[in-house]
Design brief:
Layout lengths: L3 H6 L19 H29 L15 H24 L3 H36 L6 H31 L11 H26 L2
Helix pairs in contact: 2-5, 2-6, 3-4, 3-6, 4-5, 5-6
């Protein structure tokens, strides 16, 4: 007959998905604050992209659609930023399952992909700025606007890199090897990067359609 100690040893793992207690999102002040922060950023990016759309669709524009040459490196940076979101999604799932080594590795992979994104974006932005400087004398400033929009996103990615470095270093130090809400910093960082991912996909899609 199984002893009481045997029963206790088979108690549910508090880190697993089906056993982890979760608070309703709007009862967590940190989650509410993050949602409001992302809403403010959404308005910033939405207004900027709307301005670009109106400029490109202006019938009086001297630059016909299809005449803008986008740096090919932007395709690679798109793959990299999507990879960051995938890695962070895996990390948040693995930490709830108590797979500590796996979630740390996923965070490290996300950090490497984010660094790769910025590394690839840098020469792409240099290319856009170079095109802007060459064509500025002709009154063409569209490449300058493209550079500004890419730079605006890259600056927020840089802020996300700071957060990602912070949580990755703390994770390798064992700071999140405990039940929720101790995992909140990773969850907030993941939400932020998912937002940046979606913004970039929408932005790059608009660049392609209205190039």
């Amino acid at each position: 007959m199984p002893s009481r100690d045997d029963a206790n040893s088979r108690s549910p793992d508090p880190f697993r998905d089906d056993d982890t207690p979760r608070q309703p999102s709007f009862k967590n002040p940190g989650t509410v604050g993050m949602i409001l922060f992302l809403a403010a950023l959404f308005m910033l990016f939405a207004a900027s992209l709307l301005g670009y759309i109106l400029i490109r669709l202006n019938k009086q524009s001297t630059i016909p659609l299809g005449s803008i040459a986008l740096p090919r490196l932007l395709w690679l940076s798109t793959v990299l930023v999507i990879g960051v979101s995938v890695a962070l999604g895996l990390a948040t799932r693995q930490i709830r399952q108590g797979r500590h080594r796996s979630y740390r590795n996923a965070l490290t992979a996300a950090l490497a992909l984010a660094a790769g994104f910025l590394t690839v974006q840098a020469p792409a932005m240099v290319r856009l700025l170079s095109e802007h400087q060459q064509l500025r004398a002709t009154g063409l400033h569209l490449y300058g606007l493209l550079f500004f929009l890419v730079l605006l996103h890259a600056m927020h990615v840089l802020g996300g890199m700071v957060a990602l470095v912070w949580v990755t270093v703390k994770a390798h130090g064992g700071a999140y090897d405990r039940p929720p809400p101790g995992h909140d910093p990773i969850r907030y960082t993941t939400l932020y990067w998912h937002f940046l991912d979606m913004v970039w996909i929408v932005m790059f899609s608009i660049f392609i359609v209205l190039r």
